[in-house]
Design brief:
alpha/beta; Rossmann fold; Ubiquitin-like (UB roll); 4 domains; six-stranded mixed beta sheet; four-stranded antiparallel beta sheet; 13 helices; globular
Length: 423
Amino acid sequence: MIKRSFFALSKHRLTYDLLDTSLQSAEPIAVPGSLTLLLPEEINSAKKALIGPGDAVKKGQKLKLYDDSTPYVLSPVAGTVKGFDSYSDDFGNTATYIMIKPDPPAKGDEQWAQTNLEKTLEFAAGYLGQIPGALPFSTLANPEYNIRTIVVTGADTDILCDTCQFVCTAYADQMAAGASILKEMTRADRICITVPENLSTKVDLDGFNILRTSDTYPSSLPAMVMKDHLGKVLSPGTCPENEGVCFIRPEALVSLARIYETGHPVFDKVITLIDKGGKKYRVKATIGTPISKILSCFNVQINERDRVIIGGPMRGLATYTIHHPVVPDMDTIMVQDRDVITELSDNACVNCGECIRICPANVPVNLLVRYLEATLYGEAADRFDLESCIECGLCSYVCRARIPLYQYIRLGKHELLTLRENA
């Protein structure tokens, strides 16, 4: 996360990048010699695992750790399980890496080939939960939500990013086919799509209700789209699903259409790589491919203390390893040179008021951060609107004291949720 200049950005008014038309196709990356699948479940040494090192897996095979496990991944290739490893995210949540060595001569999964592709949410949640674009089938199938409106994020939600715009222009027909399938699966009355108002490239989006979004950040974030285009203001602590709205990526519709057209799962993910100088590369990589493989293909060198960011500069997350795999919801990879990284600090707030003036949700950030620094998360929510934050990152961008406000807020929300779950 940065707070000021990034690739010559210096003004407090930030604008979204429009589609880079010089990148008219995505360059395929060869399947590497080892794939890593990220499974959101912790290894339990007291249980007997269903798979282990040396086990053969088939392309499209559903992999779970234990008999009673709900989370799963689909193997993108036929091959052999090399091993497991633990992974912790930035909040300390533990998941599992499953490493697979591809075996090109092996056949596909016979069980998948015999699977009847039912157009139901129950089937999709059980077999299609890991397709490129990460369609949230479990959310759509959740009886607590009455999803009647689906919004496709054709306008990218972070600055410098244009992957979603590219997918909309390159795969419009497949998006329309995927939207028809999804509408048949769900109870949605309408499917909308956000499109940048200044996008010059012609996009054929027949069948979608088009929402033209402003070029000013953060107008494309879900909370802003809800307010500006759907007339719904989210209450503190709620999400769009509570209002019957679900946001999805355009690539998820493309994947859905391809699966039902071919009868086989798909695993190639479209990603935009932004190097240290701001140059963009469009790639198509198999889920599980290490980031290092993509970087090496374009001769992007990583030096000590350089930063690799998954996502955009305002809301993206830095990864501590270049061996982090491509996952279904990864749209952008950015590399930031160590010499231009703005250092964060533990300085006290100087009460300049910049964070308050720029906050689109009118959160009193200067007061909020004092309670977050003191780990008073409940009081931060009750007195200073912690849960009203839409996590745009603008407060950190303008902070003169270089306080990591965005990180404090994300941590505060996480800790608040944990406190409530344990209450």
